[in-house]
């Protein structure tokens, strides 16, 4: 089937070509595992985490499974993907920054050979392994030789792949579209990445034997900039954001409290002083901002509908009940382009247009937290996390308060698959896993953990129990928060607890030396400036 055909034109054929006739599969000895990752979506952007954006399919997965209120990502796209795939901190896997070589082992911009990936481990346990979507863990995005493709999906454990190798893409006409190891020509009209990724995921799953468990990694590029969506989807949301970010944040926060996602004792982080009050904007400015957020909401809503089609296909195949589906985002909402965002193109949201949410809407996306993508305050690293597995998780609609992290996905999958995590792979010594299996937390049991750590662009954090130490940049002062009482990071306790600051800073320093965070690139020189747009993003 041609992957470039419009999903609307395919609709009459879907029941046969993508889903097929109903199948009654026997329960496999091992669960199927699906990891769904979205791109640049904030903590509160789906309905079951407080959003007004309709996400009925994700909400249904949450109602049949569990949600984690304290799950963390890596604050940025490449580091998160490296950590998710390997069960290591991103610097250990070689991608402490982005996909360019910055001269130190933690910052090579390529997955190294001292790590193994989820598909490499799960294949050894008998799993079929598939991926669709955004790869973004290699600098060789247009590779043609086997050596250059050494860190492409098939070379790192996947049997089949369809997606984009590079970091960002035109949703309608991506220029690095790839099937397995073969570059595809730019698609024509009717193509949309969100739909194509799910169509091919369904095709891969339905093409495998029923008696073999599978692992699927579905990595959407939605809702990453430049934001693009079908015009009918955008039209559904025009005018719905005229209420503005100030009122919508209050509404999301109130809903989060009702849902049990946040504690009512945590105040909503105040609007930063460089951002305007919604009511101070002119009618034309409000309309412009409404248009921006309508495009963003359309991307999220369309992604949710695509997840619904995947779930329907699993049900039709008879494997839904025996499939663990986890859903999360690679970082917090994105403030790049500053307070005003961008709304360029004719029309905005179409192919080749240039639309960014900007800092003002990112503040809403990360409700109730401070800061955004790139940063290690809660707004940058907190993600929604849904785990659905009808045959394996007893909880239905419950919220888990256990603290989780990307590094936990590898040990979770190893346990459920009955796999053996190797100490050596392809002649290379492999670093041990850093995380904890989430299986006990699925049943609301405690996780034994010392601490979790972050570093990106000099921004850094460590969380041990309820205490979190966090800083801005390498030269920034450490801030200390008790997250049990103050997860929105409003009351810096560094001055009143200097011994705890010293203790946690020492833990972070030891971790940084162990995991290749240090030495930093360009050690001894002025640190590199933050990514464009972040210089404007203050607390």
Give an account of the 3D structure:
The chain has helices at 7-10, 14-19, 56-64, 77-86, 90-93, 118-123, 193-207, 231-237, 245-259, 283-317, 358-365, 378-381, 409-417, 439-442, 498-514, and strands at 32-38, 66-72, 128-134, 160-164, 177-179, 182-183, 214-219, 323-329, 342-344, 354-356, 382-388, 398-405, 424-425, 428-429, 452-456, 459-464, 467-471, 479-482. The longest helix has 35 residues, at 283-317. The protein is globular. Mean pLDDT is 92; it is low at 1-21 and 524-539. It is built from 15 helices and 18 strands. It has one domain (40-442, 451-536): Alkaline Phosphatase, subunit A (3-Layer(aba) Sandwich). The protein is α/β, with parallel strands linked by helices and 539 residues long.
